[in-house]
Automatic annotation (TrEMBL):
Organism field: Actinomyces gaoshouyii
Residues annotated as domain VWFA: 107-306
Cross-referenced Pfam families: VWA_2
Protein name according to UniProt: VWFA domain-containing protein
PROSITE patterns reported in the protein's UniProt record: VWFA
Transmembrane feature ranges: 6-28, 75-96
Residues covered by region (Disordered): 37-64
InterPro entries named in the record: VWF_A (IPR002035), vWFA_dom_sf (IPR036465)
Keywords recorded for this protein, A-Z: Membrane, Transmembrane, Transmembrane helix
SUPFAM superfamilies registered for this protein in UniProt: vWA-like
Domain of life from the UniProt record: Bacteria
Amino acid sequence: MTFHPLLGWPLAILVALIGIGAVVLNWWRLRPVRPRPRAAPVPHGRRDAGPTPPGGEADRPLPARRPLSRSARLVVARRTALVVTLVLMLAGPSTYQYDQRVTSTVEVYLVVDRTGSMAAEDWAGGAGTRLDGVRADLEAIRKALPEARFSILALDSTAAREMPLSTDINAVDSWIKTLRQEVTSRSTGSSLARMLPLLNATLTEAEQVAPQDARLVYILSDGETTDDGAGAKDAASQGVAWKDLAPLVDGGAVLGYGTAQGGRMREYDGGTTPADQMPYIKEEGQTADAVSIPDAQELQTVATDLGLPYYQRDGEGDDPTSAFTSVDVEQILSDGHHGKRSSRYLTWPLALLAFALMTWEAAALVRSDIEVRRLVRAGGR
């Protein structure tokens, strides 16, 4: 039990003082006064006599007030109870309550590269694109950790948080199914380092909000850099490096996509044109088709700096997804309660009591008024 004044402590204290004063005044006025004894008559011719002898009328004490009658005590008690009840209501008696929801203490951050090079056709022997492999691995991660909270960070010409931490599995599945490469005409080159500032800020904020949670980071990319080092320079200017993120990461993996031979990439216009009808992306300033070669060395370096395992994925003879999705649930997964504490006021019982006391007071006033009218009528006859 605690108190949260409805209108602030100053007003509650002021009302309490006014109420106490009103009760004391009411008690004083209800006390009957003993009548002063009549003075002895002054003999004829003694009006100009000297001072009244000791023990005379001048030395008599002022009239004293008699104790309250039973009915007057009842009135004072009722009005005192009413004042106390109203003051308690203004003081706001309340208890704490929590809007709770059960969540997992495992947070999964999916960092997904969707630059144009991820559309390279060197997945599963040329039967699909790297993004096909990404979608399959994302689904495996999601299914392996059904109780976790997921956040999705997408990398293309910019780094953006596509979905904040959420247990909305349907939203995660929907995002995975609709994953596409960036629109080719908007591409400004690719760089995994472009994700560094956003990922650092996201993990730092998460650690401050829930330090007891376990954070798993999965980076899905081909590691290719085609922005002339702009992303790396921006991260360096902000003083952020992959090694700085290691203390914030409890697990996960770096997944690299593509083959050493690389593959060609088709354009994407963001419309409904079938992918196999889109032209291939050309080498800048040339007519030859561009070929994307994954940078496995860059991805391995990132994995080492983060303290995560690295897996190269090409759709042929890959490690099973269980290699990077198996999590020791007993060790890092538990039910946690996350909620906002709020106050629940308990004024309704006092409101009922105040209503009963006011009804009683009103009935007593009506009876008093009727009695006064009866005495007035009787005295006028």
